[in-house]
Design a protein that fits this description.
Blueprint lengths: L1 E6 L4 H10 L1 H4 L3 E4 L1 H11 L3 E3 L7 H10 L5 E5 L9 H13 L4 E2 L2 H13 L3 H7 L1
């Protein structure tokens, strides 16, 4: 599966820790991330990650384009809801695209935990079948 990993600045450590904890599952999938987040995850885990621009420089939109082209299966986006983001319209557009194209979206560690357990069991096979 193709999985996007995104995190606002105050949540990057949480996402790095999350991917590190489940590296045995993530290594079975194709990973994509926005700039700094992808760099930090790759350094911590040695996983291959396709890195886009940072979010404010268009990385969210690059991932959104993959979603709109039915070329992304899941998004894990650890958001910081208490800090204003300068690129909030891009973030909102990404979330909307996930809804429009039925792409599973986890915006916090609780939802991401459910998703990763589902990946481990094979619960998201319909996404891959839908893409073909």
């Amino acid at each position: 599966m193709k999985i996007s990993l995104i995190a606002h600045d105050k949540r990057k450590d949480d996402l790095v820790d999350f991917v590190t904890a489940y590296v045995h599952i993530f290594k079975q999938h194709e990973l994509f991330a926005t700039g700094t987040t992808g760099k930090r995850i790759a350094e911590a885990t040695n996983l291959p990650i396709h890195r886009f621009q940072s979010g404010p420089l268009g990385g969210d939109q690059q991932i959104g384009a993959m979603i709109a082209n039915n070329d992304m299966d899941m998004v894990i986006f650890f958001r910081d809801p208490l800090t204003a983001q300068p690129h909030e319209p891009d973030v909102s557009a990404l979330l909307r695209l996930c809804d429009v194209y039925q792409v599973p979206l986890a915006t916090n560690i609780g939802a991401a935990e459910i998703f990763i357990r589902g990946l481990e069991r094979g619960d998201f096979q319909w996404r891959e079948l839908n893409r073909k």
